[in-house]
Automatic annotation (TrEMBL):
CDD domains: AmyAc_Glg_debranch, E_set_GDE_N. This is Glycogen operon protein. Residues 182-592 form the Glycosyl hydrolase family 13 catalytic domain. It comes from Allonocardiopsis opalescens. Pfam families: Alpha-amylase (PF00128), CBM_48 (PF02922), ISOA1-3_C (PF21156). Residues 490-511 are annotated as: Disordered. InterPro entries: GH (IPR017853), GH13_cat_dom (IPR006047), Glyco_hydro_13_N (IPR004193), Glyco_hydro_b (IPR013780), Glycogen_debranch_GlgX (IPR011837), Ig-like_fold (IPR013783), Ig_E-set (IPR014756), ISOA1-3-like_C (IPR048650). Belongs to the glycosyl hydrolase 13 family. Residues 490-501 have a biased composition (Basic and acidic residues). Coiled coil: none annotated.
Length: 723
């Protein structure tokens, strides 16, 4: 038989159709809808042959009703009580046939005792949002409030899963190669100068991928992108009367649902696909995606807060409560999720698995992550089951897990967070040390050396990649404000300047706020470059705050959580106005990528036998002689990596000298082998464009034995061939 006839014969084979599954048929009718007992797992609303399976957990409810709506209509289409036979343990499950996922919204009424002192807050007046809702309707336009008579403002919907990933996969960068860029999806493109087709959206961020790629970052850390309520802030700007928002988004409503108002297609219910397309295009450009997630509290707040979901379904399971039934407040926002309760622990795991499998994100930054290590009574667990579960989960195996290793109740675990050889941490010690060193505080040189070399005092055998190094983040001053203000200026937040941290370790360089003084401006520019250069030559994982590379200011506001406007947005005109700073940052990122000595691999084999220098060595005015005294304000480090290259060894050697003194200092340079010579990569004391060189095109130094490091400046040299 020929190949052609064989294929034809296969086509001609008659195969009996598979028998219909017996559970594809309804067994009864409720409220006019054909139904049958559902599958308890997975939780949420899941399309099945011929219908949708609804499954919801409540250990304390006495009965449960599924409430169906047509999209946008104020009154329910139908209410379907779960028969007792549809309940298994604490799970209510029902398959409803004949529903079109695109034309239905759903929620629940939970019936049970309202006994706050016992932890129960059931109230069947409220239609409750499914905690596992993959899509939430009702808030597709940013800043538009719900209709006053809407009985169900956060409406759960069922998305389709038909997205085409086109074989695009994650770049899979190693931890030591990451350069993280923290940004806000709306704020990155909301400014009119962004010139994007749909400002403030996932699709607009896609339009800015060439900028990110040109900058050199290879990972974006996105502030909350799930559904949250931006309108829960009751305050106004006391000067202008302008309403204030919960702009940052640290008040979750729907942990599984991409925020509809961040999608240009949100009004069509296509935010899931738009988010996936953003991830796909970032991956195509070699950029990973880390999501900022908030599993420490919800938008339901304290006893006076709204009943939206968790509180009405099973308050005593989902929240930490005091003996009198009040909400424990380790988050500073009114409530605290009971993350180490087995049900809540599974909820967190299911959520993260969903974002990884469905949206293919590369990792998570956990807000106030120390809360995740507290027991239901608030005590600190020595071996937190949630943190261990996330560290060893097979689906999350390749994810970056980053902890903000403190909480709002005083638990500070930087360097001691339960890591299970998997977690990295926002290194708050790094931030504070760099700031103090740069403004010239005495007694900081030794600590600065430790931070520069990877914070081994904190992370030991975990290695430098456990340290997420940062000087600025969304919470606090921008880099430009760090060098322009001595104190916070948060009056526009409507809290009488009481909010925000008072311990900023900032310095205004001689004048508070805006100035035309050329000397002050030169010093501020130099200090900004100093911070960026130290960050990008430190061992560990650097994280940049969006806009620092172009001198973005928040006018001294160090807690701009409520500011949805130019004060928080990325002003794209700055890319031209501060082009020299942008070029400096691009070069510094590229320099880091070019030099393995700055980012040693955690799994590197034993050093080559003929290496020239130690991995890290310390120097001062005299080579090999650092000054660790309390009065010293000079630190010089030489980073070295000997890398096998065929039969020879490639020597990578970088020298970093940081001077926070107000006077310049002349340094002896370590002697190099005859075939190598020192070249200048960056000198922040020099005026642009001579403050930095393109990597690989550094300037050969005329004097190979000495170098001048200017007042309050950083000098970076690289050893290259003399040829």
């Amino acid at each position: 038989m020929t190949g052609t006839s064989k294929r034809e014969s296969f086509r001609d084979v008659q195969v009996d159709p598979l028998p219909q599954r017996i559970d594809a048929y309804p067994t009864q009718t409720i409220a006019g809808f054909p139904v049958r007992p559902g599958q308890a797992l997975p939780f949420g609303a899941t399309p099945v042959p011929g219908g949708i399976n609804f499954s919801v957990y409540s250990n304390g409810a006495e009965r449960m009703t599924l409430v169906l709506f047509r999209p946008g209509e104020p009154r329910p289409l139908a209410e379907l009580p779960f028969p007792p036979s549809f309940r298994t343990g604490g799970v209510y499950a029902m398959t409803v046939f004949g529903l079109d996922p695109e034309s239905i919204e759903y929620g629940y009424r939970a019936y049970g005792p309202f006994e706050p002192e016992m932890g129960h807050r059931f109230d069947a007046r409220w239609v409750l949002t499914d905690p596992y809702a993959r899509l939430i309707a009702g808030h597709e336009t940013w800043g538009r409030p719900s209709a006053p008579d809407d009985p169900y403002p956060y409406r759960a919907r069922v998305p389709y899963g038909d997205f085409d990933w086109e074989e695009v996969v994650s770049p899979g960068h190693r931890h030591e190669d990451l350069v993280i860029y923290e940004t806000h999806v709306r704020g990155f493109t909301a400014h009119p100068a962004s010139e994007t087709s749909a400002p403030g959206t996932f699709s607009a961020l896609v339009e800015k991928i060439p900028y990110l790629k040109g900058l050199g970052v290879n990972c974006v850390e996105l502030m909350p992108t799930y559904e949250f309520d931006e309108l829960d802030n009751p305050r106004t700007d006391p000067t202008t009367g302008r309403r204030l928002y919960n702009y940052w988004g640290y008040n979750p409503l729907g942990f599984f649902a991409p925020k509809a108002s961040y999608a240009a297609t949100g009004r069509f219910g296509m935010q899931v696909d738009e988010f996936k397309n953003m991830v796909k295009e970032l991956h195509r450009a070699g950029i990973e995606v880390v999501l900022d997630v908030v599993f420490n509290h919800t938008a339901e707040g304290n006893e006076q807060g709204p009943t939206i979901s968790f509180r009405g379904l099973d308050n005593s399971t989902y929240y930490m409560l005091t003996p009198g039934g009040y909400y424990a407040n380790f988050s500073g926002t009114g409530n605290t999720l009971n993350c180490n309760h087995p049900v809540v622990r599974q909820f967190v795991l299911d959520c993260l698995r969903y974002w990884v499998t469905e949206f293919r994100v590369d990792g998570f930054r956990f807000d106030l992550a120390s809360i995740l290590g507290r027991a239901p009574d608030g005590s600190v667990l020595p071996n937190p089951p949630l943190l261990e579960t996330l560290a060893h989960d097979p689906v999350l195996r390749d994810c970056k897990l980053i902890a903000e290793a403190w909480d709002a109740a005083g638990l500070y675990q930087v360097g001691s967070f339960p890591a299970y050889d998997r977690w990295s941490e926002w290194n708050g010690r790094y931030r504070d040390t760099v700031r103090r060193f740069l403004k010239g505080d005495a007694g900081t040189v030794g600590d600065m050396a430790t931070r520069l070399a990877g914070s081994s005092d904190l992370y030991g055998r975990r290695g430098p990649t456990a340290s997420i190094n940062f000087v600025t983040a969304h919470d606090g001053f921008t880099l430009r404000d760090l060098v322009s203000y001595n104190t916070k200026h948060n009056e526009a937040n409507g809290e009488d300047n009481r909010d925000g941290d008072n311990a900023n370790n900032s310095w205004n360089c001689g004048w508070e706020g805006p100035t035309d003084d050329p000397e002050v401006l030169r010093l501020r520019n130099r200090q900004s470059r100093n911070a960026l250069l130290l960050l990008l030559t430190s061992r560990g994982v650097p994280m940049l705050l969006s806009g620092d590379e172009v001198g973005r200011t928040q006018d001294g506001n160090n807690n701009a959580y409520c500011q949805d406007g130019p004060q928080s947005w990325f002003d794209w005109r700055l890319t031209e106005e501060n082009a020299d700073l942008l070029r400096f940052t691009r070069c510094a990122i590229a320099f880091r990528a070019a030099h393995p000595a700055l980012r040693p691999r955690s799994d590197r084999s034993a050093p080559v036998t003929d290496q020239l220098f130690p991995d890290v060595s310390w120097h001062g005015v005299h080579d090999w002689t650092p000054d660790w005294s309390a009065d010293s304000r000079l630190l010089a480090a030489m980073f070295y990596a000997g890398l096998p290259s065929g039969a020879e060894v490639q020597h990578d050697c970088v020298y970093v000298a940081a001077n926070s003194h107000w006077e310049g200092q002349r340094l002896e340079l370590p002697r190099l082998p005859e075939e190598l010579a020192w070249h200048t990569f960056a000198d922040t004391a020099a005026e642009a464009p001579h403050d930095v060189y393109e990597p690989g095109r550094e300037a050969l130094r005329a004097d190979q034995s000495r170098a001048l490091v200017g007042p309050r400046s950083v000098l970076v040299l690289v050893a290259r061939s003399r040829l």
